[in-house]
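[step 3/7] fold_predict: job queued, chain A
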Amino acid sequence: MNLTDRAWQLPLRLVAGSYVLDSGLRKRSPDEETAKQVHGFATGTYPFLARFDAVTFTKALAVSEILIGSALVVPFVPASLAGIGLLGFSGGLLGLYARTPGMRRPGSPFPTQDGVGLAKDAWLAAIGAALVLGDRR
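[step 4/7] structure written:
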């Protein structure tokens, strides 16, 4: 597939990659309070994460976000590979949305005001799927 055939991927990869990369860069050196908030939110949905120290967990999350964001913005990483990484990451975020009390309206997949921030991450899943499916020509 030549560059012209992949031009449609560029805006998707740049927007999602920049967003995820920035998120990771901001978490690189968390203070104790920030790390506890991030870790506490994650362990509420994924209890197995409680075995990790809050700062260590937040730094590991930052590294994963930096790697996924970088894979999206550099053009030589295959779209399907970058898309799979983004799908995994967004799946975790959507798990937080689905399982955290108060994020969704009762009996509905639609968000409460508190859930809008996480519900918006569905666009990351859609971009990941588009990159995986669109790279299969």
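[step 5/7] annotate
Helices lie at 9-27, 32-45, 54-73, 79-99, 116-119, 122-134.
The chain has one domain: 9-134.
exit 0
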